[in-house]
Amino acid sequence: MHNFKPALALLCGSLLIGGCATMSAEDCSSADWQTIGLADGTAGQTLAKADRRANDCAKHGVAMDRSAYDSGRDQGLGHYCVEGNAYQLGERGQSYNGVCANHNEVDFLAAYEKGRELHAFTSAASSASSQLATAESRHKELDTELDKYWNGYRDEGLSMDEHNTMVLELWSEMKYLEKEAIPYWRQADATLSAALSDYRDKVVANDPSIGTRLRPPSFSGPEPWEGPTEADARAMLQEVFSTMARATGGSD
After folding, report:
1. What is the mean pLDDT of residues 19-28?
2. Contact partners, residue 56, CB within 8 Å, separation at least 6
3. How confident is the model at residue 247 (pLDDT cuts 50, 70, 90)?
4. Is 40 part of a structural domain of the chain?
5. pLDDT, tens digit (0-9, with 9 covering 90-100), for 76-125
6. Dmax over Cα atoms in the chain, in whole Å?
7. Fewer Cβ within 10 Å of end Cβ, the chain: N or C?
8. 127 and 226 in one domain?
């Protein structure tokens, strides 16, 4: 009987390092096809990988032992096509290539769908949190930049019109983030974080709805900022005049 474990570890290591996309003449001449098939099956490789190996070796004048390869691959698929692995594939958002048709695929797909559900909820919550952080960071950056201009800084390389246009664009984007994007992503973040927590509670409780293609609420994003408008220009001027009036003790 073959001792597959050392060779399998070596092959899996080479898969991670170089992708094992081709086989050299030396690889082909010394190939243990059953061990190679075992490694490919354990990795969930489709038969397209076997065809590439066969073609590579044919170029070197070596015939692949397809029977030994298929035997090893079938054994490897027995390790790959288990519910625990299926769940992890789905949880990581990885695709399934239909290789488990002869290895309890029904249970495999049920576990895979549960993993995909968790991936959908965690990804949505993470994305909303990231979008909120990005919007808040940009708002802070714009606020700091505008403070500089409110305090009299001017880029001497710009005409007055160019300077005013630039300041208006910065102000308009900041207000968009303040009134549209940040509130939107705060709501999305709160909603999706709660949805993820609720989903995890269902998993713990073994709720029968788990695995029925549950998906989180959809947040496609706020309406995009398209630049300053005339209304923005009027609002900015009003804000500037109001600020100046307060600073000098006057009224609007």
Report:
1. 76
2. 22, 23, 28
3. low
4. yes
5. 999 999 999 999 999 999 999 999 999 999 999 999 999 999 999 999 99
6. 95
7. N
8. yes
